[in-house]
Write a structure and sequence with these properties.
85% of the residues lie in helices and 0% in strands. It is an all-alpha fold. Helix 3 packs across helix 4. The two termini are 27 Å apart. The relative contact order is 0.14.
Amino acid sequence: MPDWLSDLGPWLKTHPDLILPLLLSLGMAACDLKTRRIPNYLTFGGALGGLGFHLGYHGFPGFLDGLAGLGLGFCLLVGFYLLGGMGAGDVKASAALGAWLGLGRAFYLFIYMGLAG
């Protein structure tokens, strides 16, 4: 078994709040690879789920953090969309993941996306 795979279990135990966004991103990536589109039910449903998670888990301050993450995820990529560098689904996916991750982690997501891209 590769080292990174054996380290996945302990990492998930210390970061359980990242399991659902990870599954959401894998689902969006699979749809994007298969159809070259990311369905709205994944992006909008994911965003609502992230906001609901923050509201239920952290209360109103968490909801505001999720809303700020959603806005940051959208704002960081909308310029690239307007310039023709990426599709609208990518922008919506970034916003949905930002809703799950919150403001601070949404910015890190943007950095990691740039490094991976």
